[in-house]
């Protein structure tokens, strides 16, 4: 789809450079808003439930901030919103405003991702040491990424989210490569310290069962499907 032909506006609720790149590659123009939530306060036993719950919490926080902006509360502190106010309640207030009634439909995309290694959920590493251990674990082995995409139509209140899983198998990764990636710091900012598109790691990726864009945090096919359903 040509970016300028889109019948709706898009807000990407993420600061991820990779997600921004993927959505641009899909041909969409969009604005960016980020959610200020305490991700560690949201826990689920199943990784599928966790990534969807986190994407929902991010959407709720962004919608809350949009409401504040629209009601001229621009000086308010960012809201950490977990369960105190639901998206449905906020959208219910928004929908009565002429601004929303007359506005072009706006679709909010939020997402989250974890890595699953030997049945254990891994989020972003807490330290360089943990990132290094994560990567040593993957060396000669395999892990899976599990990511969610949630699309919310801010005009109608429609909301739908799904998840996507990818299996990644690695050759042995030399310690010097792991050290370079850790010192560079990029693996500290991704779930499980797992990255497959970096030039240093590409030669050691044995097989990807799924799509690279999903591993990078935004599966194109699923995102496109949910955008169409939301509009």
TrEMBL record:
Keywords: Hydrolase
Keyword Hydrolase among record annotations: yes
InterPro entries associated with the record: ITPase-like_fam (IPR029001), Maf-like (IPR003697)
Any one GO molecular function term: nucleoside triphosphate diphosphatase activity
Cited Gene3D superfamilies: 3.90.950.10
Pfam families for the chain: Maf
Superkingdom: Eukaryota
UniProt KW DNA-binding keyword: no
Protein name, entry field: Maf-like protein DDB_G0281937 isoform X1
Organism, scientific name: Momordica charantia (Bitter gourd)
